[in-house]
Structure formats: structure tokens, C-alpha cells
Amino acid sequence: MATPARPTGIRGTGAQTRADAQRIALELFTTRGYEATSLREIAERLGVSKAALYYHFANKEDILRSLMAARGTEAGELLAWVRAELAGAGAPPRDLAERAVMRWVETVSVDKLRGIRFLLANPTLLRGEGSRAIGDGLEAAATLVAGPSPDPTRLLLIRMAFLSINAAVAAARGTALSDEQIVAAARESALALLVRLREPTA
Amino acid sequence: MATPARPTGIRGTGAQTRADAQRIALELFTTRGYEATSLREIAERLGVSKAALYYHFANKEDILRSLMAARGTEAGELLAWVRAELAGAGAPPRDLAERAVMRWVETVSVDKLRGIRFLLANPTLLRGEGSRAIGDGLEAAATLVAGPSPDPTRLLLIRMAFLSINAAVAAARGTALSDEQIVAAARESALALLVRLREPTA
Questions:
Q1: CA distance B22 to chain A (A)
Q2: 20 to 30 Å CA-CA from B25: which of A180, B62, B175, B198?
């Protein structure tokens, strides 16, 4: 899902406009829905002309792709980290699952949380290319840390631990909980699953 | 979301046809998608005429409603059980959250699991009336067992425990895990969260 590179040499207000456009787009995509949001509205909320926005993004899909790519990069980095930890090791180190899950969950940025909320609010995009790249990275990481021929329940629990943030965001729907409270619950949940995974019965 | 009652007095093959139609519809809705499935296909797979199927269901939406109503009834029964447990008690009994969550998770029928998988495969229906009735019942149960003014993280963890099955089904996407393995992981996950909830820090 390689996205054609956008000009990255823009400095000052240009780079800021790009980042602001992504932030505002994500917010509108989440609250109003992706389909219902137009590039014009994003430009209006941003306080720039549509032409100025076009300089950064050819269309709405282009903004979406850039957002997905950012999350996909995070998943790719996690996978690269897991691979580096495994390099040279015969079997996965005992605490690798734990460290990998917490690495993913502890680094929940506000952007990551908003990205997940956006996908839950626009579920038809869940099967899109960008979303699949994130899922594929996480799945590969889960499979690697689970080790060879893991117990199926164990593998699924590891996957669930990685997806604690998603589960927390889904469970928080309709509540007035803050992002911080949702992240706190996601961490608690991941820790709880990891404790269970440490027990020989799980 | 009261569904107009269908004739329930049908006996023998009539009642069986109705149940078979629901089962086959759910299967097709999940594997092919709700939109892509027609009443004609359901009748064909069922081996009955379209007219025979019309006797039980006016249209595809009617089958969907009947499926949602069955799950909504289960959530309503859970809520009624929680209310009965609370009746007369000043504060929620200490182990109520635990018993309520396990009551919900332990009674995962194959139908319940398939219903969740169907909703995850057809996410646009997640905001439909029938789906909301299930969610509302579960949410009310979670709020009641959490007790008055619960810690927000605690409340969210209780909601997540109730939704362990949903999280397990979501995490199992793309794997070849059996329904039994998914249910086993959901129970493990619910138990892990409940252990954490028992600790004073959570």
C-alpha cells in the first residue's frame, strides 16, 4: 500500500497546514462520517482556500491514505522491533509477548486512538488497503511473539492483548469517557491478559 | 424495537423451515454480506419456494429483525437477572459484576457467536435499531453491576469484560480458529479482566 510520496520539503506554514488538514479531516471523518465530509469543508474549517488544500492533497482519499499510512508505519515499526528481538534467538524470549504488547499499547498516541475511533465510526473502511496494512503488521507481530505452534487460545489472547485499545474504544462508545481514561482501561486490559498468558494454564 | 409478531403457531416443518431460514440467512449474510444476499438465494439454499419462505418472512429485513430480536431478548434477560439480583440489596453484591459477566459469556451459544460475527462482517448494521437494543441491554447491565459512581476505568473494564466475545471474534478475523477456540479465548479474557477488577488498584 505504498502511497505516492507527497512533497515533504514544505516548510513553515506549508507543513503545518498539511498536519492541521490531517487532524481536522480525521475529526470530521469521525464525527460526521467519511462519506459525508467534503474537501471543501475541511478547507473551510482549516481557514484556507480549497486550492491551498489541493496543494497538499489531491482529494479526500489522499488525506485518508496519508492518515492510514502513518498508522501503518507504526505497525511496521513494531513488527521490525519484534524481528530484531528475535534475530539470533532460537525461540522467542519468554517475556517477548509482554514487551511487544506493552510497547504497542504504551505508545498509544492521541493520533493512534483517534485513528482507531475513526475506523470504528467508518467500519466499511476497515477492509480497505490502508487498514489492512495496520492489521497485517499487528497480526504478524502477534504470530511471531506467540512462537512456533502456539496453543490457539494463547495466540488469540495475544492478538486480543494487542487489540486492547480497539476493544476499549469500542466498549467506550456512547460514554463520555476521555481519551486518557480509555487509554488507561486499554492498558489495564492488556496487563490483565498478559498476566493470564503468564500462567501455565492459559 | 418491537417486531410485529410472526405467526408462532406453525408446527412441524413450518417452524423448522423458519428456524432453518434464519440459520441459512445468517450464514449467507455473514459470508457474502447482507446487501449481497437475496431472499431468493436463501430460499434456494433452503430448498423451498420463495412463496414458502414468504409465508414466514415478508422480506430480508424481516429475517434480520428476527435474528436481532433473539439476541436482544438474551441481553434483556441478562438485564432482568441483574435487576433481580439488585432488588432489595442496598449496594451491588461484591461478586455481582463477576457473576453477571460470566453469565453472559458462559452462555455464548453458537447462535450468539454467529450473530456477533455477522455484525462485525456487516458493520453498517451495527448502528441499526436491533443492534442498539442488544448494546443498550448490555450497557445497562454493566452500569448496574458497576455500582453508583464507579471509577471510569473500572466501568470501562466491566464493559470490556461483557464484550469479550466481540473482542475475541474481532481478533480472530482472518484465522482458521474454530468457534469453540474463539469462545475459549473470550472466556479466558473475561476471567482475566475480572481478576484485575477484583484487585483494589483497578
A1: 24
A2: B175
Reported as half-sphere exposure (CB side, CA atoms, 13 A), residue A112 has a value of 21
The answer to whether the Cβ–Cβ distance between B181 and A124 falls below 8 Å is no
- CATH assignment of the domain containing A33: 1.10.10.60
Nearest to A142 by CA among A129, A128, A130, A154: A154
How far is the C-alpha of B53 from the C-alpha of B39, rounded, in Å?
8
Q: How confident is the model at residue A166 (pLDDT cuts 50, 70, 90)?
A: very high
- Give the number of domains in chain B: 1
What SS3 state is found at B115? helix
| DSSP state string for B149-184 | S--HHHHHHHHHHHTHHHHHHHHTTTS---HHHHHH
Q: Which pLDDT does position A200 carry in this prediction? A: 62
ipTM of model: 0.82
The cell numbers describing A93, all together, are 524470549
Q: What is the pLDDT of residues A68-106, one digit of tens each?
A: 888 888 899 999 999 999 997 777 888 999 999 999 998
Residues A19 and A39 in one domain: yes
Residue numbers of the domain that contains A52: 8-58
Domain identity same for A54 and A76: no
Which residues of chain A have a CB within 8 Å of the CB of B133? Answer: none
- Cα separation, B158 vs B161, in Å, equals 5
Of the candidates B7, B20, B129, B9, the one whose C-alpha atom is nearest the C-alpha of residue B68 is B129
User: Do A98 and A26 have their domain in common?
Assistant: no
Are B154 and B125 a contacting pair, CB within 8 Å? no
DSSP code, position B147:
-
- Cell numbers representing residue B43 in the block: 430460499
